[in-house]
Design goal:
There is one protein chain. With about 150 residues, the chain is α+β, with helices and mostly antiparallel strands. Helices cover about 30% and strands about 40% of the residues. The chain has helices at about 10-20, 30-35, 80-95, 110-120; strands spanning about 5, 40-50, 50-60, 65-70, 100-105, 120-135, 135-145.
């Protein structure tokens, strides 16, 4: 059984590789390392054996946290790993003094929108044309959470 782990600096090359597979404008390894070294970026991951199958990256500036990106290899989707990653990130934020979490999500990514909603995130706005893709642009839904994980 796979479990969620707080990843270290040594894991960031795998995170950057997974990020590059899933996002048109991915963070580079250097960006992850720089944020990690400054203590601003926390990354949780899930492994299947030695292979990183998914991660969530967060910018932590207490009392706020922003979920930056989350990706899961397609073969491992819809198995509860995304929920486990978000929950671990929120719980980790609580330990660091976070009381509110924000994110942006592609409005067409209904699985992600539904996951975040189920975990207590609410829609607070929209960023028009936020995501660029070969077909043009897509809007981002802004969501925020003050869930049970963020309360003392």
């Amino acid at each position: 059984m796979s479990c969620v782990l707080l990843l270290s600096r040594a894991d960031l090359s795998e995170v950057a590789a997974l990020e590059a597979e899933h996002f048109p404008a991915p963070w580079s390894l250097e960006q992850f390392q720089s944020s990690y070294d400054r203590g601003m970026c926390r990354v949780h991951g899930v492994r299947d054996g030695a292979m990183l199958i998914g991660y969530i990256s967060c910018l932590v500036l207490p009392p706020e946290m922003e979920i930056l990106n989350m990706a899961m290899l397609p073969a491992f989707r819809r198995r509860g790993f995304g929920r486990a990653l978000v929950t671990a990130a929120l719980r980790g934020g609580t330990v660091m003094g976070v009381s509110i979490c924000h994110l942006e999500v592609d409005e067409t990514n209904l699985a992600a929108v539904n996951l975040y909603s189920a975990l207590g995130f609410t829609r607070i706005g929209r960023r028009r044309g936020y995501y660029h893709c070969p077909q043009g642009t897509k809007d981002a839904i802004l969501m925020t959470c003050e869930s049970q994980y963020l309360k003392p």
